[in-house]
Design a protein that fits this description.
The chain is α/β, with parallel strands linked by helices. It folds into 2 domains: 222 residues, 3-Layer(aba) Sandwich (Rossmann fold); 56 residues, no CATH class. The chain is built from 9 helices and 13 strands. Strands 5-6-7-3-8-9 form a 6-stranded mixed beta sheet, with helices on both faces. A 4-stranded antiparallel beta sheet has the order 11-12-10-13, with helices on one face. Strands 2-1-4 form a 3-stranded antiparallel beta sheet. The mean pLDDT is 89.
Length: 301
């Protein structure tokens, strides 16, 4: 187990007229080496608090976390193998982008970090901003700078808090490819995200967090549940279609409808047997968004 939380609770004491807040409530989370785990939840679910506990930035009220079999503590050598990207990264704003990368590369201290930095700068399109002061950078450029610093040294374990926030579509795709590459090369990734469509493309496992409790965790396919994929087809009309073909719009010569993915070959046999033309047939996959909302609804029942 590369990262584990057992009975993790965090309660913030009341201040002024505000009530006490329970950010985490007995959370149990297990991360195996090689996982790409997405931590999902609404705002205030406790995702960032959980990441901060794993990183030793926040001491839990009760429970414990372990990284690589050890409890994290400030200054631990464990962090030589860990990369972190906070939700809103802040840097020494008087440095240029190039100077900031050199500073963090020096802290990493691994052999060949300069070549790795150059590769990441090229991939993320930061070359033209090397001489720009960080204080003048847009949110997207600062986010790219954060991505470079957390990937330098090829860490064994990555904690990413909303890493795609503020990025344009091209940068999101490049980051997605970089993270998939890192994971395929052995890095374990724990990522919080609200971009569920992106999570579906990259994560191998997910955990749904709500009010500090894990409602569901496991392989992405298991959380999605039984396949409810369907095909949306437009086909030449005929007098009667099979019961499993849910007819929609009927036109003069064609019919649009839906059929379960499991009956696709049966339907193709049907249209061939009647010599019907298929104008289009598109797979619509079950979505993580639907599964996520269903888990939350069940948790509130």
């Amino acid at each position: 187990m590369i990262a584990e939380a057992v009975g993790l609770s965090v309660r913030f004491k009341p201040r002024l007229r505000r009530r006490a807040v329970t950010a985490l409530d007995g959370m149990d989370l297990a991360v195996q080496e090689g996982d790409y785990l997405a931590l999902l939840g609404l705002n205030g679910a406790g995702k960032t608090t959980a990441l901060h506990c794993f990183l030793g930035l926040l001491r839990p009220t009760s429970g414990a976390v372990r990284l690589m079999g050890h409890r994290p503590s400030a200054g631990s050598s464990l962090f030589r193998e860990i990369g972190f990207l906070p939700e809103e990264p802040h840097y020494h704003d008087y440095l240029t982008v190039g100077q900031a990368i050199a500073y963090y590369g020096g802290l990493v201290g691994s052999v060949g970090w300069q070549e790795e930095a150059a590769r990441l700068i090229e991939r993320l399109g930061l070359g033209e901003y090397r001489t720009m002061r960080v204080r003048k950078c847009s949110k997207g450029i600062k986010q790219k700078l954060g991505i470079v610093q957390c990937l330098l040294g090829r860490p064994r374990l990555l904690f990413l808090d909303e890493p795609m926030r503020g990025l344009d579509p091209l940068a999101v795709r490049e980051l997605r490819d970089l993270l998939i590459e890192a994971n395929s090369n052995g890095a374990t990734i724990v990522m919080s995200s609200h971009m569920l469509s992106e999570v579906e493309m990259v994560a191998s496992r997910v955990a749904v967090l709500d009010h500090g409790r894990i409602l569901a965790q496991g392989r992405l396919a298991d959380v999605l549940g039984p396949s409810d994929d369907v095909y949306a087809c437009e086909v030449q009309s005929c007098e009667a279609f099979p019961d499993y073909f849910a007819e929609g719009t009927r036109r003069e010569a064609t019919v649009e409808g839906l059929l379960p993915a499991a009956r696709f070959h049966d339907f193709m046999d049907f249209v061939r047997g009647r010599q019907l033309k298929v104008l289009s047939c598109t797979l619509r996959r079950g979505r993580l968004e639907d599964a996520f909302l269903a888990v939350l609804k069940q948790g509130h029942a």
